[in-house]
Amino acid sequence: MNRKLRMGMVGGGSDAFIGAIHRLAALMDNQIELVCGCFSIDPAISLSSGRSYYLPESRIYATYREMFEKEITLPEGERMDFVTIVTPNFAHFDPAMMALENGFHVVVDKPITFTLDEALQLKAKIEETGLILALTHTYSGYPAVKEARERVRRGDFGKIRKVYVEYPQGWLSTKLEDSGNAQASWRTDPKRSGKAGAMGDIGTHAHHLAEYVTGLKTTEVCAELNVFVPGRLLDDDGAALLRFENGARGVLMATQIAAGEENAIKLRVYGDKGGLEWLQHEPNTLLVKWSDRPTEIVRVGNGYMSDIAKHNTRTPGGHPEGYLEAFANIYRNFSLTVRAKMNNQTAKAEWLDFPGVEDGIRGMQFIDTVVKAGYDDTTKWVKF
Amino acid sequence: MNRKLRMGMVGGGSDAFIGAIHRLAALMDNQIELVCGCFSIDPAISLSSGRSYYLPESRIYATYREMFEKEITLPEGERMDFVTIVTPNFAHFDPAMMALENGFHVVVDKPITFTLDEALQLKAKIEETGLILALTHTYSGYPAVKEARERVRRGDFGKIRKVYVEYPQGWLSTKLEDSGNAQASWRTDPKRSGKAGAMGDIGTHAHHLAEYVTGLKTTEVCAELNVFVPGRLLDDDGAALLRFENGARGVLMATQIAAGEENAIKLRVYGDKGGLEWLQHEPNTLLVKWSDRPTEIVRVGNGYMSDIAKHNTRTPGGHPEGYLEAFANIYRNFSLTVRAKMNNQTAKAEWLDFPGVEDGIRGMQFIDTVVKAGYDDTTKWVKF
Amino acid sequence: MNRKLRMGMVGGGSDAFIGAIHRLAALMDNQIELVCGCFSIDPAISLSSGRSYYLPESRIYATYREMFEKEITLPEGERMDFVTIVTPNFAHFDPAMMALENGFHVVVDKPITFTLDEALQLKAKIEETGLILALTHTYSGYPAVKEARERVRRGDFGKIRKVYVEYPQGWLSTKLEDSGNAQASWRTDPKRSGKAGAMGDIGTHAHHLAEYVTGLKTTEVCAELNVFVPGRLLDDDGAALLRFENGARGVLMATQIAAGEENAIKLRVYGDKGGLEWLQHEPNTLLVKWSDRPTEIVRVGNGYMSDIAKHNTRTPGGHPEGYLEAFANIYRNFSLTVRAKMNNQTAKAEWLDFPGVEDGIRGMQFIDTVVKAGYDDTTKWVKF
Amino acid sequence: MNRKLRMGMVGGGSDAFIGAIHRLAALMDNQIELVCGCFSIDPAISLSSGRSYYLPESRIYATYREMFEKEITLPEGERMDFVTIVTPNFAHFDPAMMALENGFHVVVDKPITFTLDEALQLKAKIEETGLILALTHTYSGYPAVKEARERVRRGDFGKIRKVYVEYPQGWLSTKLEDSGNAQASWRTDPKRSGKAGAMGDIGTHAHHLAEYVTGLKTTEVCAELNVFVPGRLLDDDGAALLRFENGARGVLMATQIAAGEENAIKLRVYGDKGGLEWLQHEPNTLLVKWSDRPTEIVRVGNGYMSDIAKHNTRTPGGHPEGYLEAFANIYRNFSLTVRAKMNNQTAKAEWLDFPGVEDGIRGMQFIDTVVKAGYDDTTKWVKF
After folding, report:
1. Would you call A169 and C263 a contact, using CB atoms and an 8 Å cutoff?
2. CATH-assigned architecture of domain A5-131
3. ipTM exceeding the 0.85 mark
């Protein structure tokens, strides 16, 4: 198959934030082209958005139902190969299921669905169809994060004992949802966001990052969730003590009321031999720590990096890559895997390294567990 | 009174760590002189240590009991004015009480005593005698920490909502107490250290720092304490969710098994208007954060600092002060207060800004509370 | 014109470094598509490269001469609109001139040409044709750099007095050109790189950054160039004292033998009221310094940034952008300008903010001046 | 000799900056006591200062001449052993020579004298008398700087090629000397400071640091000195290209008009195998860089440090030491050397590691050379 993969979109109109990110990430590597979309619940916005993306009007749809119905009638190679879903959480499941039922691969923003049950249904459909689903837990796309995972996996740090993961933001320190801010509005609305606020929006990222790097599953959670801004309907802050399957212990902090913080997701992991630290604000650096010798500043793009990190790096050392490249790594690995499937080839292990439906289910379980634990003053530990 | 204050010591022989720190801190400002001491439980070590500190043999004692008995017979101005106690925790109370009973002021290392009850007895004796006690919670001696407290106090950040305090160390990642290391040996021994390990040694510092800067009292604790190194008798790791009296929430992390970490005590506080961050490894910097404008790098020694920070600073901006100067601030403020008392003067507010018996009691309550909470899998919140 | 701009390439085969960067940068914003190219001096590599970029064979050319001849015969909207030239320095001029003569706009890597005279010829041709040329001085594409320039321009720092610009790399610490490394090979070869080595490759970037941010022209240079690695034919290190037109003074350091450095280009500028600091390794941060108040950490993506920075930013605060996005800003502004021209519209000021032929001429003058000054032990100052 | 060394002072009244620093540094280690002084040219200030240092009035002198005359009549063990001279530069030589003539060891602030000739006279007198002189080039007292020197010395980085040393300050960005600021006043006055301003005050520190760490002598200088603040009488800014005896090249930058900078002296050294970086604002960290593996964060207080660094460290890793401890290291090594001499013992190599008269002469040569080069627009290189 010597052509680019063909992407459709659900959501991502010109008034949206994350849709633009998905396009940047999908397109930069010259492996994917945008061919169609239903970019908004408002057909006029969908149309104007599609035009601004240089699409023919025939491929700009008023509803995603229409999109799937029409695209499926187009010949292979002309119709889209996969769909990217970038709507608010409550509107993930329906188009994702419809895509799978119509034979399209799926990229969907996190959290995967509105409820755990929906996620389980998607899993069943994926197993039934053999289609591929990518979930954009962006932070696991950074090469330094992949390097961290690889070094844990190969045992550099010994047995993992302690995990600190934190995700402080400050943008919801005031009741921004009352000011007409679209991002704040749906994220703080239980009808569109789900049962969790900060924990669903960013806590899931933190939890995914911790499990991704350590390779360990959380088994129990002790948590408190808080609503600091009066009148807000969902948690805007929370913290959890975590227990992992191997006996490791963790602390997870996620907040959107840490005034003055941007998006400072940070992970620290310690084993009995050493530890690591990664902070997204300086994403190309991985600090590797040792009890008996100096901390090392491991830097993306250098020759000493592991193969998996190199596979996910585009520039030489000292040419900083960022959030968009991490995002693009998910698209690139997804597209390599889809392409392999379409060519009846076996995907390489490094191509398969992107979050999928299992990660989505873990995320929904995390939301369920942390919400259950977070408002209960008597039950200390809730099983995952 | 135109002379230096005269200091005696209990503990602090030439084989000890913290005793040397106390001498450096006490002496650098030319306000205090060392005049006597019982520097070790071993009289030979006490003698050789005292000689190396250039003391006459007549003032080097074999027991602290002897020291108090003899010193009290010397004329005022020759005898010591106060005693510094730098023995392991179990041996704080007895010499401290004896000092107070004999009319000597006291400096004592933290935690103040072995049990809460002992601390309460000291408090009663202090109230009875009017003598002065300083507790060396060093980190509150840093000028940037005092600046932080001042800015919180005057309301720069609005109502405080969130506190993160962490104290990661890695030096007990292995069973160092089996190797003959004296520091590790007593700190992991319940008979000498008390009922807590890491939480007593460094958790108390973290807790003190949080309460000192925010001016808020902890009311409830949800915690887990862990022993990671097999065979160890006390916690070497722990984390706690904190509730504060004004409704603020906190997370406290203290560990001695974070392999590769040195002594990275760090505090973050967020109010509804902004926040602050301080890390001991760069102690002269206070990051001040705002929702709507850039983070400021507030630096010790500059003209814009508050009076309380300036009072605790010795050098101009860009001449880094460190741990010893923070320690010395406790001694300097203590000595100014003692001197005022001896001169029947009223101590200024900034002189009184050093930790005392009330801080010591808070610390013992913290240990009791966090130990009670930390091993109980069913009770979630324990009142302070 | 409702279509993407159509890009051809000269150079940039699958074995090249900077060509891949150009494609990533050009394509990510969904405003440009790659339609043709002569990707290598080796027709087989050109063909295989073009195929891997999903081009039809009819648009993959064996020589750039052939490309221009054939493309010009295609109808507007099918033929390329502009050409990107990413060959070694000695092979910039000929395809650039040929492009201009055939009516194509040009993007060319820096330094613009092999000699100053060639650059002047390009300028004359551009003035004659009205075509548009962009020069990829990447570092001026960073939003934080544009913020810096804007703040200098509007006088925040008062009169500029001092400029420090440095560009340390370490990758040529050994004679890498003997090992078959293609990058090292042509960059150290006077026949392909020109009369300067490090000063041409990275010194020009540093010089451009200094003039771009300050808005000041260098007038005199005092320099020393060095060849540290035995047998190397061009400078691998150098430093220069700079005099600027307003009386400001500067120091420029560029080296490729600073073992262990990656690509740490850094700029500091000081006026009589304050100063700024920017380092590419943390490119989303601009430190803004003041004599009488704390340094501010100005961060890309925040609401307080200037309009010009916002125009060049794709993600919200805390989602780090990197080298590729800075590069893409040059392409985006170039494409907006070209598109305006094709639509007979007036380009906005922020669209015109990309390096062009004048910057290229300054760069060639810098090379001439610093090489003249750099090996002369008797003449101290050389006029620019 | 079982007593503390006895220090007298010339200068260092309660209105002075550097005198207080000297006392803190001298006293903290409990090896030195202050016994006498002439603390000001104003006898009343000298008296009140001496009282505030708890000296008997009999040992507080109105002139340093009187001090030397009287002290010499006191018995050994009561009279001072050495004198610390902390007057402005023009008043270093006379008391230093008088001290040596009367048999007292000397500590003197830098630059050692007002002229090179005076420094040479001191050297001759020292050789004649065998007395010991320490010069407080503070930055060479930091343990991380000593670690740097040791690693260069033992060849870790191979042959040294490149040295960058910079010392940016901003406090003289305005004409502070007109505001009554005592520090600014004498430092910008050629009659009290000497022929150089910034270069004498801080350039000498930078130069000393570069030669100290590399072990290389500067042989030639190409420089420009500037006076940016109108009406100022001495340079407030300058930069120099340096040539070292082994063929290494350097850049030295010293400025006092970098608005917003505090005291950011920084050194970078690169050899053919690796390099190092040290910045005084984070003085306990030494970055060690390698071409082929990660940069290491070498931290003072850890077990892996060299013996010479450990000898100059008081606290364990993670307990930051600062400027005063670096300063105190000079006093401690000086006092160990003096004590050895008084005891007719051989001083250990690590005791002798403090700046002395030879360093002072190098500093005066540096001032002479850089001033000669700095205002000459025709002579490029001036021999050292």
Report:
1. no
2. 3-Layer(aba) Sandwich (3.40)
3. yes
